[in-house]
Design brief:
The chain has five helices and two strands; from the N terminus they run ββααααα. It is mostly helical. The chain has one domain. Strands 1-2 form a two-stranded antiparallel sheet. Helix 1 runs parallel beside helix 3 and helix 3 packs antiparallel against helix 4. The chain starts with a strand and ends in an 8-residue tail after the last helix.
Length: 159
């Protein structure tokens, strides 16, 4: 490590061999990182679905406060995931995992047990969560420029 004095009086700590910038990641590394990230988003959706299924019933009076808060969290997570991944697939990954969990949690079992009951809090959580996730996916920009599928040559442009 070399210590260089800057003309402004500061000190720069740099390695002697840092003269060239790092090479960009290969296509395989980029694909691997993207796959792991999508897997983590699916796991986040599963976690939100399980936690929401267990805690959606908290209410103040007759107002299902927890269900409403979980709807907002679902929208925020899906929207931020889409923004972070740069496309609708990023927003759809946690939403589809969440939807699968809550559908399974609301299904009747042979014992008669279910996690999401057919009461106001359960319906607000189920319907509101599905709608908010769908809105988050719809509000997320596509990975391609807007209208690009309209501008591609169709059958008439081929010949």
């Amino acid at each position: 490590m070399a210590v260089d004095e800057k003309p402004s009086g500061g000190v720069s700590l740099t390695k002697d061999d840092e003269s060239s910038p790092a090479a960009p990641p290969s296509a395989w590394e980029t694909a691997y990182i993207a796959a792991v990230t999508y897997l983590m988003l699916v796991m986040l959706g599963l976690l939100l679905g399980v936690l929401g299924s267990l805690h959606h019933g908290w209410s103040v009076g007759k107002v299902p406060v927890a269900a409403i808060a979980l709807i907002a969290v679902n929208f925020a997570v899906c929207r931020l995931a889409g923004w972070g991944m740069g496309g609708k697939l990023g927003a759809a990954a946690p939403w589809t995992a969440w939807t699968a969990v809550v559908i399974l949690a609301s299904a009747d079992r042979a014992e008669g047990d279910l996690l999401i009951a057919g009461d106001l809090a359960g319906y607000v959580f189920l319907i509101g969560g599905m709608v908010s996730g769908g809105l988050a996916v719809a509000a997320t920009r596509s990975a391609e420029p807007a209208g690009s599928w309209l501008m591609r040559p169709g059958l008439r442009g081929r010949g």
